[in-house]
Specification:
With 333 residues, the chain is of the alpha/beta class. It contains 11 helices and 12 strands. The strands form 2 sheets. The chain has an 8-stranded parallel beta barrel with strand order 1-4-5-8-9-10-11-12, surrounded by 9 helices. β10, α8 and β11 form a beta-alpha-beta unit. The structure holds ligand PBG.
């Protein structure tokens, strides 16, 4: 279908931009509260809420305050919250055993939210980096991030999170074969209703810096993640990975980072038509907040415009640290 336009003066596209009601009537896409997933950082303790220095307005919360945040998000109509743990450095090991401890921070938070806030879906981030003394998403042997052994660990992690009551598992590790392995293990364990949102097209990006601060992985990380995360120059490869993860049993797929990769979102949605999400990552959030704090941009407007862009690119939803702020703005109208 080609959009048609009568030649001027019969065609005056400005007619439809003249008033707010007319603009609203012909708006093709918009961001709504149903499109939001809110990533939150969890830490130990109780009654603790500390700001992440490189992400002003974003906090690490102890489990009790994470539950309170989930309740607030549910009340705002946000459908899902994604838990990202800040692990006590003393619990980090080369074998990453804490990752599948049923009593780890993430699993305790899942259980408490499930118990106290039934109206919100709980999503997790599956990767070994918060638990790894090496800061990598996989097990490191002789300087190599080994694939198959890591997949075994990720499956144990996925099962522990499903047992705790997670609704959406989000493998963010970029190992090969992990979606199929997790899906089989979930079926075998009686967790056939647990959904997987695969971080399928995840790039080796410098935009993740503030997140690594937030989960305490920056100091630990040696080298980079280029042997498992995607090369930013690639686009066809993203389609191959999305197709692979869907065929292994992913219910939803994600592109990450967000705004710099909207072309990938568009191709993925057009090619597969699957539920497609983007992650507006920590560096994107930090850039908007930093410019707004300097008075260089209107932060509220840029926030809304940046999220609308994901919908225009074809995304069904967005993981964004702005989620509660956007939800409040949308409610105010
Ligand atoms: C863990 C993970 C990362 C992010 C989400 N899950 C960091 C990384 O891969 O290094 C980044 C999210 C963000 O920057 O907001 N594997």
């Amino acid at each position: 279908m080609r959009p048609t336009l009568a030649p001027y003066p019969a065609g005056r596209p400005r007619r439809l931009r003249r008033t707010a009601p007319l603009r609203a009537l012909v708006r093709e896409t918009s961001i709504g509260v149903d499109d939001l997933i809110w990533p939150v950082f969890v830490r130990d303790g109780s009654g603790v809420r500390e700001e992440v220095p490189s992400m002003p307005g974003v906090f690490r919360r102890s489990v009790d305050l994470t539950v309170a945040a989930a309740a607030e998000a549910a009340e705002l109509g946000i459908p899902a919250i994604c838990l990202c743990p800040y692990t006590d450095p003393a619990l980090k090991t080369a074998g990453c055993e804490e990752a599948w401890n049923p009593e780890n921070l993430c699993n305790r938070a899942i259980r408490e939210i499930r118990r106290q806030v039934p109206g919100i879906a709980v999503m997790t981030d599956i990767a070994l980096d918060p638990y790894n003394i090496n800061g990598h998403d996989g097990i490191v042997r002789d300087g190599e991030i080994v694939n198959d052994e890591t997949v075994g660990c990720l499956v144990k992690m996925a099962l522990a999170q499903a047992d705790a009551g997670a609704d959406i598992l989000g493998p963010s590790d970029m190992m090969d074969g992990r979606i199929g392995a997790m899906r089989t293990a979930l079926e075998t364990a009686g967790h056939s209703n647990v959904t997987i949102m695969s971080y399928a097209a995840k790039y080796a990006s410098a935009f993740y810096g503030p997140f690594r601060d937030a989960v305490g992985a920056s100091g630990a990380l040696t080298g980079d993640k280029k042997t498992y995360q995607m090369d930013p120059g690639n686009s066809d490869e993203a389609l191959r990975l999305i197709e692979r993860d869907l065929s292994e049993g992913a219910d939803m797929v994600m592109v990450k980072p967000g705004l710099p990769y909207l072309d990938i979102c568009r191709r993925v949605k057009e090619t597969f038509g699957a539920p497609t999400f983007a992650y507006q990552v920590s560096g994107e959030y930090a850039m908007i907040e930093a410019a707004a704090a300097n008075g260089w941009i209107d932060g509220e407007k840029v926030m809304l415009e940046s999220l609308a862009a994901f919908r225009r690119a074809g995304c069904d939803g967005v993981l964004t640290y702005f989620a509660p702020r956007v939800a409040r703005r949308l409610r105010e109208g």
